[in-house]
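A further point concerns the way the authors explain their paired sequence and structure data. Showing the layout once, in full, would remove most of the difficulty. For illustration, here is how one protein appears when written out as sequence plus structure tokens:
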Amino acid sequence: MGVAERIYELVQSLPEDRAAEVLDFAEHVKGRAAVVFHASRAIDFSLFDQVAAKYDGKFDRDALYDRACLR
């Protein structure tokens, strides 16, 4: 007898609310086992090209904190 059949037999003897708990738990376990796809390393640098003229790679750290919203 497989696991699914054993679970089915056990759930049949449970009251409806307890059987619903078993179903919720099984769905939770299934959700945890979802396939995770890692992010691609391919980066579209066209977004950076749009602001390249505004940032030259150097910045003044003190100037970053010299804003009205940070006072």
Summary: Residues 15 and 21 are 10 Å apart (CA to CA). Helices lie at 3-12, 16-32, 46-49, 61-64. The chain has one domain: 3-70.
